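Notebook, bench 3.
Goal today: get a predicted structure for Mov34/MPN/PAD-1 family protein from Halolamina pelagica so we can plan the truncation constructs. The sequence was checked against the plasmid map this morning, with no discrepancies at the termini. Length recorded as 136 residues. Pasting the sequence as submitted so the record is complete.
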Amino acid sequence: MLSLSRSGYDEILSHADAGGEEEVCGVLAGERCEDGTARVDAVHRAENVADQPRTRYRIDPEAQLAIIERIEAAGRSVVGFYHSHPTGPPVPSETDAERAAWPGYSYAICLPGDRPYLGSWRWTGERFEREAVALR
């Protein structure tokens, strides 16, 4: 399960809305609980540096490392990542699966707009498995 504060949920959707027709992305920070829950306490926006930002996302490796260092300096852990699909679908794409690199971590996908949506999947190393999203 991915457990988000209301403010974290709102931050992700606000970022997605601000991205317009381009995908946005970021890193989810918090703790990984013994029961398998990824508890998100902070959302870190990242710049999408993909060549095709309307249909792809990519975090610059140096920027990602800097975000991870900030997360760890704050006593938190990386628990996952998020990105938007401005034109859908509300599930991981083939490209998302090809580029997923963190087995056991959450990958949240959001759809911005009048009827926002946020879903999450755990990457097994071979495929995505849907996980519940809970607001707290």
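The chain has one domain: 2-135. Helices lie at 6-18, 61-73, 94-99.
Flagging this for group meeting.
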